[in-house]
Write a structure and sequence with these properties.
globular, single chain, 5-stranded antiparallel sheet, alpha+beta
Length: 294
């Protein structure tokens, strides 16, 4: 008998789709990578079949998608099934970015954030404490105070990882540590925990053929709403000014939010420094210096 974990790795996308959806499969439509494929079901419906390397990552993504969907207006692919290694969701037919869609996206994102979370760092219902952001481990540990929680569970773990792997030099880490110590005075007005996508870079924003905007691959958790917006700005987003216009129509941001963008970008920059090297570490250090002097 093949062990369960080994069998999961050897099983192909078509058999996974049939098993997790309960429907016959007519074939693999397109293989996008070794871990991602489009599969057509017998009714013509096309689903995405994604393999995860860690059971916690699959469970976290499935729980995150369902939690975001529960918020209402925001659009995410429906989850058709998952197990320890595989996730099956709807495929989103891709269109082109447009200004009207961007405004609607901003409004929907504001509604998502307003749906709230039980605490900063709260995991989605059914999601694990030990989750992921992209390829990096991310712990969802609840906290009541955003500045202290953000420093302890989002910034400092990745700073330590970057120091340990040599991406950030030990003397350089002091600037980030000083910024963390000053977060209570720099973080702006206190806000309730928002329901975050958590990994909202442009690659996880799909402009659908239905002229709506869809979100994929969340690292969902309770956090500060400015973090999602800072991520969009860090890696670019089509019609970002219109996204922000739509957001501010529904939920105006607190005064000074532009000056706090760097604080919220520090977390994803340090994650990227751990994963991808020195260039992102230099960006993170520059952001920390600017926040301390600005």
């Amino acid at each position: 008998m093949i062990p369960r974990s080994t069998a999961g790795r050897r099983e192909g996308p078509c058999s996974v789709a049939a098993r997790l959806t309960g429907r016959p499969v007519t074939g693999e439509r397109r293989r996008l990578s070794g871990a991602l494929a489009e599969v057509t079901l017998d009714d013509g419906h096309v689903v995405m079949v994604k393999r995860g390397d860690d059971p916690g990552a699959v469970r976290a993504e499935a729980a995150g998608l369902r939690w975001l969907a529960e918020a209402g207006p925001v659009r995410v692919p429906a989850v058709h099934g998952h197990d320890e290694r595989w996730l099956v969701t709807d495929r989103v037919p891709i269109g082109r970015p447009s200004a009207p869609a961007a405004v609607r996206f901003g409004r929907d994102l504001a509604a998502l954030h307003a749906a709230g979370a039980p605490a900063f760092g709260a995991a989605p219902p059914g999601g694990p404490e030990d989750a992921y952001i992209g390829l990096a481990p991310m712990r969802n540990v609840p906290g009541a105070d955003w500045p202290h929680w953000y420093a302890e569970h989002r910034v400092l773990p990745y700073l330590r990882g970057a120091v340990d792997n040599g991406t950030v030099r030990r003397p350089e880490a002091a600037v980030v540590e000083r910024l963390c110590a000053r977060l209570p005075e720099l973080a702006g007005p206190a806000e309730p925990p928002a329901r975050l996508h958590g990994d909202l870079w442009n690659g996880n924003v799909l402009w659908g053929a239905d002229e709506e905007t869809w979100l994929i691959d969340p690292a969902a958790h309770g956090g500060h709403r400015e973090t999602d917006l800072a991520m969009l700005q860090l890696f670019g987003c089509p019609h970002l000014d219109r996204v922000l216009d739509g957001y501010q129509e529904v939920a105006p941001l607190a005064d000074g939010w532009v000056n706090r963008i760097g604080l919220h970008q520090l977390f994803p920059l340090l994650v990227h420094a751990v994963l991808f090297g020195r260039g992102y570490a230099e960006q993170a250090l520059a952001v920390a210096r600017a926040a301390l002097t600005g």
